[in-house]
């Protein structure tokens, strides 16, 4: 190819590139001015719209800022909530994991996930070196029946201000008092049956007719019996089919409060003077339930017996166990015997308190109520307004779920409160 033709080819390529570059630049200029024009139109329209809202420019600005603030706050709260749920809460079992209540707590998160707890971001371990530093645990839990024997050398040597040291037990102080000053100002959380515990270990929840949890609590506002609705005729007829006086299911024949002696004296009084009796089932009597399945025993109680001995094996404040639940959920009037203030657990006119009556008075009252069906039926008026439930029926009330839930409650976690005189708090009314 000669030089002339080569120049022509180069010129053609150069011209093509220039045209392409010019076209691209032109497109960009058009796009840029188009965007400017669009923004201009939006601003003009917005200005026109704002001017039409005569007298509302200032309000419009305030509302806009308020809405923006609300959106920002909601976003921050959602992020905080999400972050909070994702943060693991570590619980160290300092004492043996085989003691109650630790034995049913599970390992890792299993105890909370299996119960379908509202919060499952709690991790249980007995490995003290899991986090490298014991001060990193959110809570260190001590089983009361074991730690009461500990010396100072057997306890953690250091602790951080954020940690919760938890005294945990399901047992009564009557059998397991704390007799050392070592724990004064030591525990800042408690997990017991006492109603003033940070996490309550109990056997029942009380709900109103709207299914709201209302107790048990230290102060209960019950409806007075004369304000309660009467039981239905159908329920009265069901109660009239009962044919036996008193039942008691018991396996522990020996205790510190003399409940077995009380039951035997009552049995004798009823048999001699009223031709009634107390039927004792279990390890303390030759009588056995008709089936090894407890539900069949409860069915027998519901169908046959007017009263049930809800006798506790010890006297401690608020110590009320499943023995009360057995009566109220099986249509038997409970005869209570314990150290609790029972107005925290039962409405007036729904039970008999054996500690406030002599055996003769108690036997006479049993006979009177059996002979007066309408009067006896009034002891069940509470059923129209309240209901009793086992705590493990619902993850909301389950003791282990609640322990994890309280660790996720910032207000409770940030509240620092130590029990100064631990012996007085725990042992009352018992002594070492």
From TrEMBL:
It is found in: Golgi apparatus, Golgi stack membrane. Residues 240-416 form the Fucosyltransferase C-terminal domain. Its main location: Golgi. Residues 89-203 form the Fucosyltransferase N-terminal domain. Keywords: Glycoprotein, Glycosyltransferase, Golgi apparatus, Membrane, Signal-anchor, Transferase, Transmembrane, Transmembrane helix. Pfam families: Glyco_tran_10_N (PF17039), Glyco_transf_10 (PF00852). It is a single-pass type II membrane protein. Gene3D superfamilies: Glycosyl transferase family 10, C-terminal domain. It is an enzyme of class 2 (transferase). Pathway: Protein modification; protein glycosylation. Its EC number is 2.4.1.-. The chain crosses the membrane at residues 26-44. It comes from the Eukaryota. Belongs to the glycosyltransferase 10 family. This is Fucosyltransferase. It comes from Chilo suppressalis.
